[in-house]
From TrEMBL:
Its cofactor is Zn(2+). It comes from Bacillus atrophaeus (strain 1942). Coiled coil: none annotated. Zn(2+) binds at C228, C293, C294. This is Homocysteine methyltransferase. It comes from the Bacteria. The gene is mmuM.
Amino acid sequence: MNPITHILDTFPMLILDGAMATELERKGCDLNDSLWSAKILMEQPNLIKQVHTDYFAAGADCAITASYQSTIEGFAARGVSRAEALRLIQKSVHIAAEARDEFWEQHKSSDRPKPIVAASVGPYGAFLADGSEYRGDYQMTEEELMDFHMPRMKALIEAGADILACETIPCLSEAKAIVRLLQKFPGTYAWISFSAKDEKHISDGTPVAECAKWLDQHGQVAAAGINCTPIQYIPSLIKECKKNTAKPIIVYPNSGEQYDPDTKTWNGAACAEPYEKSAQNWRKCGAQLIGGCCRTTPEDIKAIADWARS
């Protein structure tokens, strides 16, 4: 069964978690590394489990795994074998599921759904670690992108993820490659969320309306929307998606600070408006799956949960 439909049939919205890397850094991890949070899968997986638990406690209905930047190619560059890389990729799902099951055993409640585990499938640009996930200028064919994504997607599905979180996708061609791969796994669902450059276009310049319209045709796509994008663009992007798809709209933007992929630093201030106030507006615009991406925290997710369940 489509896990998102299963939840939205009973509850008005699904609350996602927030940033993984931000929390790992707050716990003392150094993520200035091409593997980013995937590095912690090798070094301190217990900290990843703690972050998942913190978000569940804050009210999240979904844990996004620490596999965004986990790829066979990325691990290979660090001397990790293919077999070990696949084990680590699957471990990201097992950690999240274990945190979810332990939390739910102690906090079963009728006013929220049992949380789901969404296995993060980051874009090809995340493996490059050069900011390409905000440009989408890969110069690769759909077939080449399918070859890249296939081993990780297969491993995550076999690890037992409830759904795939195909996120920060910068170009429609990569989304098409992922959806074509999904068709090789009947019964598997994914959400597709793009990174965007302005109020109406994803990162490579394709209108988000065109993306939503294309995704609307595909039954294994459980939700469509935007993540890892400046907060001010979100209301317009939701409306553009809503006009072109009947699928649930998912949004989990950044805190409002701006990321510089060259220096790998964040600049500027977070949005002056409280995060939950922005989230309330996104809900009014039509989003049903709402959470946070880079620089958001369990406190932000708790604020969303407090008003959503009040």
